[in-house]
Amino acid sequence: LAQASKILLSLTPSEVAVLKEGVHFLRNKADGKSYILYKEEDTLRACKNMCKHQGGLFIKDIEDLTGRCVRCTKHNWKLDVSTMKYVNPPDSFCQDDLVVEMDENNGLLLVELNPPNPWDTEPRTSENLAFGEVQVRNSQGCLFASVSCLLSKYHELHLPLFLSSYPTLKKLAEKRPDVPIYVGKTERPVFWFLDQSGVKLTNINIVPFGVWQQVDKNLRFMILMDGVHPEMDTCIIVEYKGHKILNTVDCTRPNGGTLPEKVDIMMSDFAGGASGFPMTFSGGKFTEEWKAQFIKTERKKLLNYKAQLVANLKPKIYCPFAGYFVEAHPSDKYIKETNLKNDPDELNRQIRKKSSDISTWTPKPGAILDLKALHSNPFSFSLGISDPPAGTKIFKESWDFDLYLNVLSVAIEDEVFRYPSWVKEYYTWAGFKGYNLVIRVLEQPVPKHLTSDRHSLLDLVIFPTENPPIQWSLEEKVSIMRHVVKHGLLWDDLYIGFQNRLQRDPDIYHHQ
Ligand code: FES
Prior knowledge:
It is built from eleven helices and 27 strands. It is α+β, with helices and mostly antiparallel strands. The chain has three domains: 4-114, Rieske Iron-sulfur Protein, CATH 2.102.10.10; 118-386, Metallo-beta-lactamase, Chain A; 402-505, Nonspecific Lipid-transfer Protein, Chain A. The protein binds FE2/S2 (inorganic) cluster (FES). FE2/S2 (inorganic) cluster (FES) binds at residues 51, 53-56, 72, 74-77.
């Protein structure tokens, strides 16, 4: 049975705006079904109003002084909706979380992912492993589990990464075009750009969510959707001889927060900062102080969320590995200095504080973890790990920028840019409409071969409307912008790749 998402209840933006802190009992008038929503500061949790015991209805628990518990009207079981754990009977069941999503207008949706625990279908008992049979190694910034060769998540995150990813895929395709690649059936196709890129990969398999994919008799994997961005983000469970590895990297709320507990290894991102917001914004409230405070708060929230998620799931080993990106080019100096990232060791410390029986591992380049060795020495975690020589560097110190810049600068002189209408054509295609758009194109960095008269700024004002509700101002780098336009790439690539500087007046979030 494939995993699907279903909207159970929606609240309008005005209903959301008046939501108070605490417990809310909600009812879908169309089908009469009841739900519970709990709000505490920025946290929203929701579940069906249906007791795990025999399906009774919960009501407010007047004996509860915390304001977090509800009581079942049938036999008095009690549920703490801030944790979704039953407190009566104590240490018993957990209530299944629904996914709480905000839509683009700040309305709220309660979404159910079905079936809730697809990995429990056809369960397998864990078999003994041999030394070396399952190893996880950090090789050039990527973690590989040596039991499998799955490229399950290809996500166009930053423009530089995006460009470096296609060269990587190109090299892969030259060596072995038929390498099997599996991706989830996301609404936005993962390889939407493959045909235009010229990369020839012939064995891409799009698989449904929440269904075991058998690789051989011992190995299977399952791709799950993200609760916040189900249209493009995924996470994966790989199981070998009954031992599970869960990888949630780049997933904001993997599978809506419902994930397998006590897996052998859980791997995730840790850093934050993979968006142009707010560093690329200026004007209005976007002062340096505001941005610094926002970044500090967001990083802290991410760290707390990850630490709590890991503590709840209780993997044997937790491994924060994804987030070692650096805005290396000199023109990105400001972003590098302001876009602070979380420290994986700090995350590990928080996890161990919450749950001392979880082992944590921050893999250094070249490090290897052997699952058998860890199972053999559960009390001496370090015996299962081979670390690289002391002093091994985590970040690269020099970069071959020309590999990317040369590709980008090719587009500058393309014939299409002799016609000024390209600007309007592109931004109409990209969905900008109904407001003034002011674009200032910068030459930064300057490609070596261009003459000085091409370095000047080019100011353009397009889409003036009689009564513009919003004015957007963009500064973009000419080479990157023209590359994006010429190849029909998404405006979003410019944005999340820190490639433009933005102002909007008034400051209203606008989703197209
Ligand atoms: S049905 Fe809820 S306590 Fe029995």
